[in-house]
Prior knowledge:
Helices cover 12% and strands 54% of the residues. The protein is mainly beta. The longest helix has 20 residues, at 2-21.
Amino acid sequence: MRKILVAVVVTASAAAMISGASLAAASARPAVSTIEHIQGMSTSATSNKTSVIATGVFTAGGVDIATGATTDIFKFPTGTFKVKHHERAMEEAVNSKTCLFTISGTGTYKLSDGTGSYAGISGHGKYVLRILAVAARNSKGKCSMKATPVAWQQVIRAQGPVKL
């Protein structure tokens, strides 16, 4: 479960960064710079995709796809962009009696390599990651950090200036 958890945290972190930086809308007007707010949510500890919603200059829904430990692609109906993220702090806690575990983390991100409506996008910001999960139990009744959790809720909130 530890490997799954780390992979999910990395995916979540990437998703948060990508979501925050990539949600600026393109238009025929000159480049616009404003603060974008992004939220990503997932109920899967094993998927590399996270649902994202962005609000600010535009409102859009899409998917954050983790492509590596520190890189994600945000995919929206009218284009994509790359999100590179860096974890700054991560805290984990496990209750050995109830198997409840929590993860809290923070980090930074940068946006680049936009396509479609996001061509020319740039931006950066900060994100916060929160995970609440229930670990599976092994054959001895102990919490297993190697097995897929029986329940998983992950929320990422990101914000920062985006120029498009």
